[in-house]
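Protein modeling request. Please complete all fields; requests missing the sequence field cannot be processed.
Requester role: graduate student
Desired output: 3D structure, C-alpha coordinate encoding
Chains: 1
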Amino acid sequence: MKNRKNLKPINMPVFLSTTFVQDSPSQWGYSRVDDPTRLALENELAGLENANHGLAFPSGSSAVTCLVMMLKKGDSVLCHHEVYEGTQRILERVMNKFGVGFDVVDFNNAVKLNKAIKPSTRMVLFENVTNPELEIIDVAKISKLTKSKDILIVVDNTICTPIFQKPLTVGADVVVHSLTKFISGNHDVLGGALMTNDKVLFDKLKFIQQTLGLVMSPFDCHFVSRGIKTLELRVKRQTKSARKIFNFLKTHNKVVRVSFPGVSGIVSFVIDKNLNARRFLKRLKLIKIAQSFGGTESTILHPRSMMTLAKPLDHNFFRLSVGVGDPGELIKDLKEALK
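Delivered output (339 residues):
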Protein backbone atom coordinates (compact mmCIF):
# COMPACT_ATOMS: atom_id res chain seq x y z
CA MET A 1 0.00 0.00 0.00
CA LYS A 2 1.37 3.42 -0.97
CA ASN A 3 2.04 6.04 1.66
CA ARG A 4 -0.66 8.70 1.17
CA LYS A 5 1.05 11.82 2.53
CA ASN A 6 -1.70 14.19 1.43
CA LEU A 7 -4.55 12.50 3.30
CA LYS A 8 -6.66 15.13 5.08
CA PRO A 9 -9.09 14.10 7.87
CA ILE A 10 -12.71 15.15 7.35
CA ASN A 11 -13.07 15.50 11.13
CA MET A 12 -10.87 17.59 13.38
CA PRO A 13 -8.28 15.26 15.02
CA VAL A 14 -8.42 14.81 18.80
CA PHE A 15 -5.13 16.06 20.24
CA LEU A 16 -4.43 14.01 23.36
CA SER A 17 -1.47 16.04 24.51
CA THR A 18 -1.33 18.40 27.46
CA THR A 19 1.88 20.01 26.28
CA PHE A 20 3.23 20.95 22.86
CA VAL A 21 6.72 21.42 21.45
CA GLN A 22 7.45 25.13 21.03
CA ASP A 23 9.55 26.69 18.29
CA SER A 24 10.49 29.42 20.74
CA PRO A 25 10.00 30.17 24.47
CA SER A 26 7.51 32.94 23.67
CA GLN A 27 4.92 30.60 22.08
CA TRP A 28 2.17 28.82 23.96
CA GLY A 29 2.60 25.13 24.56
CA TYR A 30 0.12 24.04 27.27
CA SER A 31 -3.41 22.74 26.72
CA ARG A 32 -4.97 24.70 29.60
CA VAL A 33 -4.11 27.87 27.68
CA ASP A 34 -4.97 26.65 24.19
CA ASP A 35 -5.63 23.27 22.63
CA PRO A 36 -6.07 22.64 18.87
CA THR A 37 -9.20 20.50 19.32
CA ARG A 38 -10.79 23.03 21.66
CA LEU A 39 -9.86 25.96 19.43
CA ALA A 40 -11.52 24.25 16.47
CA LEU A 41 -14.72 23.72 18.48
CA GLU A 42 -14.67 27.30 19.79
CA ASN A 43 -14.55 28.57 16.22
CA GLU A 44 -17.53 26.35 15.35
CA LEU A 45 -19.46 27.62 18.37
CA ALA A 46 -18.76 31.25 17.45
CA GLY A 47 -20.03 30.55 13.95
CA LEU A 48 -23.30 29.15 15.30
CA GLU A 49 -24.10 32.47 17.02
CA ASN A 50 -22.62 34.84 14.40
CA ALA A 51 -19.98 35.72 17.00
CA ASN A 52 -16.35 36.72 16.60
CA HIS A 53 -15.25 34.77 19.67
CA GLY A 54 -16.22 31.56 21.44
CA LEU A 55 -15.06 29.74 24.57
CA ALA A 56 -15.77 26.10 25.46
CA PHE A 57 -16.15 24.97 29.08
CA PRO A 58 -16.55 21.61 30.87
CA SER A 59 -20.17 22.49 31.81
CA GLY A 60 -22.77 25.21 31.45
CA SER A 61 -22.33 26.07 35.13
CA SER A 62 -18.59 26.60 34.68
CA ALA A 63 -19.34 28.96 31.77
CA VAL A 64 -21.64 31.02 34.02
CA THR A 65 -19.05 30.91 36.81
CA CYS A 66 -16.40 32.33 34.47
CA LEU A 67 -18.81 35.08 33.44
CA VAL A 68 -19.75 36.25 36.94
CA MET A 69 -16.14 36.04 38.14
CA MET A 70 -15.60 39.28 36.20
CA LEU A 71 -17.71 41.05 38.82
CA LYS A 72 -16.33 42.61 41.99
CA LYS A 73 -17.56 43.21 45.51
CA GLY A 74 -20.54 45.58 45.49
CA ASP A 75 -21.70 44.64 41.98
CA SER A 76 -25.01 42.88 41.46
CA VAL A 77 -26.68 40.63 38.86
CA LEU A 78 -30.35 40.96 37.88
CA CYS A 79 -32.17 37.85 36.63
CA HIS A 80 -35.67 37.01 35.45
CA HIS A 81 -37.73 35.52 38.27
CA GLU A 82 -37.56 32.12 36.59
CA VAL A 83 -33.83 31.51 36.48
CA TYR A 84 -32.07 28.20 35.83
CA GLU A 85 -31.42 26.49 39.18
CA GLY A 86 -27.68 26.08 38.55
CA THR A 87 -27.28 29.80 37.84
CA GLN A 88 -29.35 30.61 40.91
CA ARG A 89 -27.09 28.49 43.13
CA ILE A 90 -23.92 30.10 41.76
CA LEU A 91 -25.24 33.60 42.44
CA GLU A 92 -27.05 32.97 45.73
CA ARG A 93 -24.68 30.57 47.45
CA VAL A 94 -21.24 31.16 45.93
CA MET A 95 -20.90 34.70 44.56
CA ASN A 96 -22.66 36.20 47.58
CA LYS A 97 -19.60 35.18 49.64
CA PHE A 98 -17.58 37.59 47.50
CA GLY A 99 -20.05 40.45 47.99
CA VAL A 100 -21.80 40.13 44.62
CA GLY A 101 -25.54 40.77 44.88
CA PHE A 102 -28.36 38.86 43.20
CA ASP A 103 -31.85 40.15 42.42
CA VAL A 104 -34.82 38.68 40.53
CA VAL A 105 -37.76 40.38 38.82
CA ASP A 106 -40.29 39.69 36.07
CA PHE A 107 -38.46 40.67 32.88
CA ASN A 108 -41.76 40.74 31.00
CA ASN A 109 -42.90 43.68 33.16
CA ALA A 110 -41.02 46.74 31.93
CA VAL A 111 -42.05 48.91 34.91
CA LYS A 112 -40.84 46.36 37.48
CA LEU A 113 -37.67 45.73 35.51
CA ASN A 114 -36.77 49.43 35.43
CA LYS A 115 -37.38 49.75 39.17
CA ALA A 116 -35.25 46.67 39.89
CA ILE A 117 -32.17 48.10 38.16
CA LYS A 118 -29.88 49.57 40.81
CA PRO A 119 -26.67 51.64 40.57
CA SER A 120 -24.83 48.42 41.47
CA THR A 121 -26.43 46.37 38.66
CA ARG A 122 -23.65 45.36 36.27
CA MET A 123 -25.26 42.43 34.50
CA VAL A 124 -28.69 41.18 33.45
CA LEU A 125 -28.75 37.44 32.90
CA PHE A 126 -31.76 35.60 31.53
CA GLU A 127 -32.97 32.78 29.28
CA ASN A 128 -34.79 33.85 26.11
CA VAL A 129 -36.95 30.73 26.66
CA THR A 130 -37.08 29.86 30.35
CA ASN A 131 -36.67 26.48 32.00
CA PRO A 132 -38.98 24.78 32.87
CA GLU A 133 -42.05 27.00 32.30
CA LEU A 134 -41.03 28.04 28.76
CA GLU A 135 -41.73 31.76 29.09
CA ILE A 136 -40.46 33.81 26.14
CA ILE A 137 -38.31 36.85 26.98
CA ASP A 138 -37.87 39.50 24.28
CA VAL A 139 -34.09 40.00 24.00
CA ALA A 140 -34.34 43.14 21.85
CA LYS A 141 -36.78 44.73 24.32
CA ILE A 142 -34.56 43.99 27.34
CA SER A 143 -31.58 45.35 25.41
CA LYS A 144 -33.32 48.65 24.73
CA LEU A 145 -34.29 49.00 28.39
CA THR A 146 -30.82 48.35 29.78
CA LYS A 147 -28.26 49.25 27.09
CA SER A 148 -28.06 52.93 27.97
CA LYS A 149 -27.30 52.03 31.60
CA ASP A 150 -23.94 50.38 30.75
CA ILE A 151 -25.14 46.95 31.88
CA LEU A 152 -23.85 43.71 30.37
CA ILE A 153 -26.68 41.79 28.67
CA VAL A 154 -26.22 38.03 28.93
CA VAL A 155 -28.67 35.62 27.26
CA ASP A 156 -28.87 31.89 27.87
CA ASN A 157 -29.85 30.49 24.46
CA THR A 158 -29.84 26.81 25.49
CA ILE A 159 -33.52 25.99 24.86
CA CYS A 160 -34.08 28.28 21.89
CA THR A 161 -30.78 27.25 20.20
CA PRO A 162 -29.04 29.26 17.45
CA ILE A 163 -31.38 27.60 14.95
CA PHE A 164 -34.25 29.83 16.12
CA GLN A 165 -32.48 32.91 17.53
CA LYS A 166 -29.01 34.42 17.60
CA PRO A 167 -29.20 36.84 20.57
CA LEU A 168 -26.04 38.76 19.66
CA THR A 169 -27.83 40.03 16.56
CA VAL A 170 -30.67 41.54 18.62
CA GLY A 171 -28.77 43.29 21.40
CA ALA A 172 -27.09 40.72 23.67
CA ASP A 173 -23.44 41.18 24.69
CA VAL A 174 -22.79 37.54 25.61
CA VAL A 175 -24.57 34.28 24.79
CA VAL A 176 -24.43 31.32 27.18
CA HIS A 177 -25.07 27.70 26.26
CA SER A 178 -25.25 24.43 28.08
CA LEU A 179 -23.68 22.32 25.33
CA THR A 180 -24.97 19.29 27.23
CA LYS A 181 -28.42 19.90 25.78
CA PHE A 182 -29.41 20.45 22.12
CA ILE A 183 -26.01 21.38 20.70
CA SER A 184 -24.30 18.09 21.59
CA GLY A 185 -27.70 16.41 21.52
CA ASN A 186 -26.84 12.82 22.46
CA HIS A 187 -26.90 12.75 26.28
CA ASP A 188 -23.23 11.74 26.31
CA VAL A 189 -21.20 14.85 27.15
CA LEU A 190 -21.19 17.78 29.59
CA GLY A 191 -20.23 21.16 28.22
CA GLY A 192 -20.81 24.89 28.25
CA ALA A 193 -20.00 27.86 26.04
CA LEU A 194 -19.77 31.64 25.94
CA MET A 195 -19.91 33.62 22.69
CA THR A 196 -19.35 37.34 22.17
CA ASN A 197 -18.33 39.94 19.60
CA ASP A 198 -16.51 42.11 22.14
CA LYS A 199 -12.73 41.48 21.98
CA VAL A 200 -12.02 43.25 25.30
CA LEU A 201 -14.71 41.18 27.01
CA PHE A 202 -13.44 38.00 25.36
CA ASP A 203 -9.89 38.64 26.61
CA LYS A 204 -11.18 39.05 30.18
CA LEU A 205 -13.18 35.83 29.97
CA LYS A 206 -10.29 33.96 28.37
CA PHE A 207 -7.97 35.04 31.19
CA ILE A 208 -10.41 33.82 33.86
CA GLN A 209 -11.02 30.57 31.98
CA GLN A 210 -7.35 29.62 31.68
CA THR A 211 -6.47 30.90 35.17
CA LEU A 212 -9.19 28.82 36.85
CA GLY A 213 -8.69 25.88 34.48
CA LEU A 214 -12.31 25.94 33.24
CA VAL A 215 -11.50 24.14 29.98
CA MET A 216 -13.21 21.35 28.07
CA SER A 217 -11.29 18.14 27.39
CA PRO A 218 -10.34 17.27 23.79
CA PHE A 219 -12.58 14.18 23.75
CA ASP A 220 -15.58 16.20 24.96
CA CYS A 221 -14.83 18.85 22.33
CA HIS A 222 -14.92 16.10 19.71
CA PHE A 223 -18.33 14.85 20.90
CA VAL A 224 -19.81 18.37 20.85
CA SER A 225 -18.38 19.02 17.38
CA ARG A 226 -19.99 15.79 16.19
CA GLY A 227 -23.33 16.93 17.62
CA ILE A 228 -23.15 20.28 15.81
CA LYS A 229 -23.14 18.44 12.47
CA THR A 230 -26.73 17.25 13.05
CA LEU A 231 -27.98 20.17 15.18
CA GLU A 232 -30.31 21.73 12.64
CA LEU A 233 -31.71 18.39 11.46
CA ARG A 234 -32.39 17.22 15.01
CA VAL A 235 -33.86 20.45 16.33
CA LYS A 236 -36.21 20.93 13.40
CA ARG A 237 -37.47 17.35 13.68
CA GLN A 238 -37.86 17.66 17.46
CA THR A 239 -39.76 20.94 17.08
CA LYS A 240 -42.09 19.45 14.48
CA SER A 241 -42.80 16.45 16.73
CA ALA A 242 -43.26 18.68 19.80
CA ARG A 243 -45.91 20.68 17.93
CA LYS A 244 -47.87 17.47 17.25
CA ILE A 245 -47.64 16.50 20.92
CA PHE A 246 -48.68 20.01 21.96
CA ASN A 247 -51.76 19.77 19.70
CA PHE A 248 -52.64 16.41 21.31
CA LEU A 249 -52.18 17.62 24.89
CA LYS A 250 -54.12 20.88 24.51
CA THR A 251 -57.26 18.95 23.55
CA HIS A 252 -56.92 16.19 26.18
CA ASN A 253 -59.52 16.41 28.96
CA LYS A 254 -56.96 15.41 31.63
CA VAL A 255 -54.53 18.21 30.72
CA VAL A 256 -55.21 21.53 32.45
CA ARG A 257 -52.55 23.69 30.77
CA VAL A 258 -49.88 23.22 28.11
CA SER A 259 -47.09 25.49 26.85
CA PHE A 260 -45.06 25.25 23.66
CA PRO A 261 -42.97 28.25 22.56
CA GLY A 262 -42.61 26.87 19.02
CA VAL A 263 -38.81 26.58 19.27
CA SER A 264 -36.98 23.34 20.03
CA GLY A 265 -38.61 20.15 21.16
CA ILE A 266 -39.75 21.19 24.64
CA VAL A 267 -43.36 21.11 25.88
CA SER A 268 -44.51 21.82 29.44
CA PHE A 269 -47.92 20.84 30.77
CA VAL A 270 -50.07 20.45 33.89
CA ILE A 271 -52.34 17.43 34.35
CA ASP A 272 -55.57 17.25 36.34
CA LYS A 273 -55.06 17.64 40.11
CA ASN A 274 -56.96 14.42 40.72
CA LEU A 275 -54.30 12.43 38.89
CA ASN A 276 -51.26 11.14 40.77
CA ALA A 277 -48.05 12.64 39.32
CA ARG A 278 -45.82 9.71 40.28
CA ARG A 279 -48.26 7.15 38.93
CA PHE A 280 -48.47 9.05 35.64
CA LEU A 281 -44.67 8.98 35.33
CA LYS A 282 -44.44 5.26 36.11
CA ARG A 283 -46.99 4.45 33.42
CA LEU A 284 -44.84 6.00 30.68
CA LYS A 285 -42.94 3.40 28.65
CA LEU A 286 -41.11 5.20 25.81
CA ILE A 287 -40.62 8.53 27.57
CA LYS A 288 -37.96 8.24 30.28
CA ILE A 289 -37.79 10.15 33.58
CA ALA A 290 -34.55 12.14 33.43
CA GLN A 291 -33.06 15.48 34.47
CA SER A 292 -31.67 16.79 31.22
CA PHE A 293 -33.22 17.71 27.87
CA GLY A 294 -32.35 18.26 24.23
CA GLY A 295 -31.11 14.77 23.36
CA THR A 296 -32.28 12.23 20.81
CA GLU A 297 -34.19 10.31 23.52
CA SER A 298 -37.51 11.66 24.83
CA THR A 299 -37.33 12.56 28.51
CA ILE A 300 -39.72 13.97 31.10
CA LEU A 301 -39.01 15.91 34.27
CA HIS A 302 -41.15 16.54 37.35
CA PRO A 303 -39.80 19.89 38.61
CA ARG A 304 -41.37 19.75 42.07
CA SER A 305 -39.37 16.65 42.99
CA MET A 306 -36.37 16.96 40.61
CA MET A 307 -35.40 20.67 40.67
CA THR A 308 -34.59 23.41 43.17
CA LEU A 309 -36.94 26.19 42.12
CA ALA A 310 -36.93 29.93 42.76
CA LYS A 311 -40.72 29.87 42.80
CA PRO A 312 -43.24 27.07 43.50
CA LEU A 313 -44.83 25.21 40.59
CA ASP A 314 -47.96 23.09 40.41
CA HIS A 315 -47.34 19.58 41.77
CA ASN A 316 -48.70 18.11 38.53
CA PHE A 317 -46.47 20.22 36.26
CA PHE A 318 -44.11 18.42 33.84
CA ARG A 319 -41.45 19.36 31.28
CA LEU A 320 -41.27 17.06 28.27
CA SER A 321 -38.22 17.00 26.01
CA VAL A 322 -39.18 15.43 22.69
CA GLY A 323 -36.53 13.30 21.01
CA VAL A 324 -36.22 12.20 17.40
CA GLY A 325 -38.51 9.17 17.70
CA ASP A 326 -41.91 8.71 16.06
CA PRO A 327 -44.25 11.40 17.51
CA GLY A 328 -47.21 9.09 17.01
CA GLU A 329 -45.67 6.53 19.35
CA LEU A 330 -44.90 9.24 21.92
CA ILE A 331 -48.50 10.48 21.78
CA LYS A 332 -49.71 6.91 22.30
CA ASP A 333 -47.40 6.62 25.31
CA LEU A 334 -48.81 9.81 26.85
CA LYS A 335 -52.38 8.77 26.09
CA GLU A 336 -51.93 5.45 27.92
CA ALA A 337 -50.25 7.11 30.90
CA LEU A 338 -53.07 9.65 31.23
CA LYS A 339 -55.77 7.00 31.48
